Amino acid sequence: MTDAAHPHADALKYEDWAGEMGARWLANLKGFEGTIAPAGEALLARAAFAPGERVIDLGCGGGATTIAVAASVTPGGSVLGLDISPDLIAATTRRAQQAGAGNASFLCADAATVTLPDAPYDRLVSRFGCMFFSDPVAAFANLRGQLKPGGRIDLAVWGPPAENPWMTDGMAVARRHVEMPKPVPRAPGPFAFEEVGYLREVLGSAGFSHVDIGAAAGELAVGGAGATAEEARGFATNGMAFGQILLDYPPEVQAAAAADLTALYAGHYRPGEGVMMSYCAWLISATA
């Protein structure tokens, strides 16, 4: 999956995931998957996969969604996890084997241009894996070509930054200590589709119809359920992109930022739950 925590400021290329970002996601897999679990669960509940369906999991990342879908489409169905990161595909293939998900397979490829040998598929799902395309209309048009006519897509993307303080509050702390680029609206990154109208425009231009957009909102646990303020700070520093930027600065700057981040997360810590902060994700379905 995508780096859900990459700052709005950075204009990412989807291909960046083939290298350092994919490796970072893998190294912080438990923290990432634990953090975004509520949104992922809402996505799968809305998608309601059925036995026998053949599904593409776009930006499969660590494979949690792929394995869950594999169980939902049994018997008779299958799921193909698609990701551009070779590190993630290798790790996720092993993980699915260990989980006994024999109807899950994986492919390292660029979804923007790939032609799948077993296409067309019935369904496509993506948990925060579709916001990094440099040309989203062309990419979604290509993906539509991998689905049967009338096939359904289900996507989760992050809503507006103001409704996702679990990301933006940490960024604000980092900006007090270091310089970071200003946000670029619609640039590849977690907030690429914060504007619902733009998202409808992209999907419509790519040939999808019956676009329906809902929301998942509430609280999530930064760093995973039960993480302490210090553990959440470690996750942010090592896994989230604003934390990576801090690592490029002198130790005294890092220490000052770390103290402020820990204080931020301590203010949201609830014993037995973790560092609970608000989030909002758009849940989208559409027809090919």
Characterization of the model:
The chain is α/β, with parallel strands linked by helices and 288 residues long. It has a domain at 14-160 and 183-221 and 281-287: Vaccinia Virus protein VP39 (Rossmann fold, 3-Layer(aba) Sandwich), CATH 3.40.50.150. It is built from ten helices and eight strands. The chain has helices at residues 20-27, 29-47, 64-72, 86-98, 136-144, 165-175, 196-205, 229-239, 241-246, 251-266, and strands at 54-58, 78-83, 104-108, 121-127, 147-158, 209-221, 269-270, 274-287. The radius of gyration is 18 Å and the shape is globular.
State the helix count: 10
Rg over C-alpha atoms, rounded to the nearest angstrom: 18 Å
CATH class (first level) name of the domain at 14-160 and 183-221 and 281-287: Alpha Beta
Uncertain segments: 1-15
Mean pLDDT score, rounded?
Answer: 90
Per CATH, which architecture of the domain at 14-160 and 183-221 and 281-287?
3-Layer(aba) Sandwich
CATH superfamily of the domain at 14-160 and 183-221 and 281-287: Vaccinia Virus protein VP39
Helix and strand element order: HHEHEHEEHEHHEHHHEE
Helical fraction equals 25-40%
What is the rounded distance between the termini? 22 Å
Main pleated sheet:
8 strands, mixed
Hey, roughly how much beta strand do the residues contain?
15-25%
Structural class: alpha/beta
**CATH fold annotation of the domain at 14-160 and 183-221 and 281-287:** Rossmann fold
Which overall shape is indicated by the principal axes computed on the Cα atoms? globular
